[in-house]
Structure formats: C-alpha cells, structure tokens
Model the fold of this input.
Amino acid sequence: MGYIRYRVDVLDALKRAGISSYRIYKDKLLPQSTLQRIREGNTSVNVGSIATLCSLLHCQPGDILEYVPDEDERQPDHHQDAADA
Done:
C-alpha cells in the first residue's frame, strides 16, 4: 500500500499567505499538536484540519496532499478495485 505525503511545505505556504504559526496558535485555528505534526511531515491530521488549511490557503486537499503508490501499484498489471482498498 502506498502512502500520503505533503505536496507543498504547508508552513511555508501559510507564511507566504501572511499567516504565521503564532496567529494560528493565538486564533486557535489549528491545535498545536497538528502544527507539530505538519512540521514533522506527519500527514496524520484530521479532515477538519485539512479543511481549515484549505480555507486558509484557498485551495483543495489535492493541492496540499498526494497519494504515492508503492512499487506493486505502479506495475501495469496491478488492478485493485476501490472496494478492495
């Protein structure tokens, strides 16, 4: 099974949008634990946090995250139904 990774440096994108980590903390836009996970590159964040990031960055989830298939999934004869996933 593949994995999910960040397509962009989320904290850098927030900074470029004029949103500092301090503002996120002060305005309670995201929990500190979520900010720490993002800093570490950990994509185990909840859907609500992804929605908040999308709102702040005016983007879609696919602009922030991407699915990277593993070697088996990249092979042309690999067919897995969505129901099997």
About this structure: The mean pLDDT is 90. Strands lie at 3-6, 65-68.
